[in-house]
Amino acid sequence: MKLQKVILIILILSCTILTYGQKFHNGFSVINANNAKIKFYVNNVEDSNWTVTPKIADDSLLIKTYLSGKDKITFKFKTDIDSIKFEIKNDETKRFYVHLNKESYALTTVRRERIIIPTLRYSSNKSNPKFKILYTNENEKGYLDSLKIKYPINYTSSKKQTDKVLTILNWTRSQWEHIGNVSPKKNDAISILDEVKEGGRFPCFAYAYVLASQLKVSGFKSRVIYLITKDIATSMQGGGHVATEVFIDELQKWVFVDAQFNAMPFLNNIPLNAVELQNAIRTDFDKLEFRSLGKIDKMAYINFVQPYLFYFNCSFDQREDVVTERNKVNGKRSLMLVPVGTENPTFMLVWKLKIDYCEYTNSINDFYAKPNQIRRKKTSANK
User: Fold this and answer.
1) Neighbouring residues of 330: CB distance < 8 A, sequence distance ≥ 6
2) Does 381 fall in a domain?
3) Structural domain of 51
4) pTM, two decimal places
5) Are residues 73 and 210 in the same domain?
6) pLDDT tens digits for 139-171?
7) Chain centroid to CA 220: how far?
8) Residue 245 CA to its chain's centroid (Å)
């Protein structure tokens, strides 16, 4: 009899403890907060901040993800004194209350939505010889020598070309903090860096120009690449971003580098070009990584860059020392890569700019043809 009473007391206490430990309001879990500013985490990575607003009847937080392989993600909502954590599937909704300052209850809805990335297709036709892009060669070093003397870079001791590129990328990003809607007086690296010394701060294209030139100083073939959104003709939200691509001789491929964000994309330890990056976001988000000698927030960067990865454009002339007219093809100064089945863009609404300076191609081999390999002419000094 005594044993039965003891068991009964334990069961009652257990039930009491469980009931006391659970916090519910109107059938939903409750977490407490003294501060309306909340942090939330996706797969244990801090995503952003949230402000609790009790006045909104059902405050909704939309979590957009690119995950292709995982069905669930872990979501954590952390207040100054409490937290809640749960798994959430695509198109699933979770609700809970935030009890703010022991007064108001704010119903919070978390909804997860997978971002659908378009499948972009390109032709595999052999590169058209008329679409030849000219790159700085070893006989055209006057400007680059001046850049090297005035703005030298201390390189890594690693012999890997990708490590050297990461060093140059990090150096470029460290020169100034980004600011939009401000243009340098000139678009060459020395002029931009001179203005930076005087306090100048510039947007993405200035980083791209400086990085491309410093890569050339180190003997790489490099180019400035323009990334353009699908809705360029109708959008008033920017529509374009500017970055850099560099040809890695060791890998015999072009690689995308973004100096504004200090980022180089890799998939399975292979660096990617811009087109490969777009595809990797769609098909291999989990495995996609970004390497940097600084800090790079993978999710934040992808959220920024992904919409721009639709049309790709670069100049037919990537040389530094040009004493004659810039190289053009059929009177056009640039080559634009357009996905198969997509109309050639001809107007940019945000800048009210007519796009009449491009030759268009659907061929991936046109846009990613290997650069010209012109060697320095032998002289009596280097024979």
Assistant:
1) 130, 359
2) no
3) 26-114
4) 0.81
5) no
6) 777 899 999 999 999 987 788 999 999 999 999
7) 22
8) 14
